[in-house]
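Pinned message: reference record for Putative dithiol-disulfide oxidoreductase (DUF899 family)
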Amino acid sequence: MPRRSRHDLATQRRRLTMVRMPEYVLEGPSGEVRLVDQDDARFVIVTQGPIDEALADKERVRGAGWSGPRLTWFAAFRIVS
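Predicted structure (tokens):
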């Protein structure tokens, strides 16, 4: 993407209204976690199935040669608020 386009997009994004998000509790390999407690939620994948299915999907993606950012995988659990 050309530099000017990224700049314009960032400018438009900063003008958007901030909204409060509900608190999401997710199921991870080690139990329940809150989405807000993740170091970098930009690299989180949340699936609708059980955590064991999510982790199996993760292994399939790795096996297919995924070379993108390291992703943390979770299963949807519940919305607190």
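Pinned by admin. Summary line: The longest strand covers residues 72-79.
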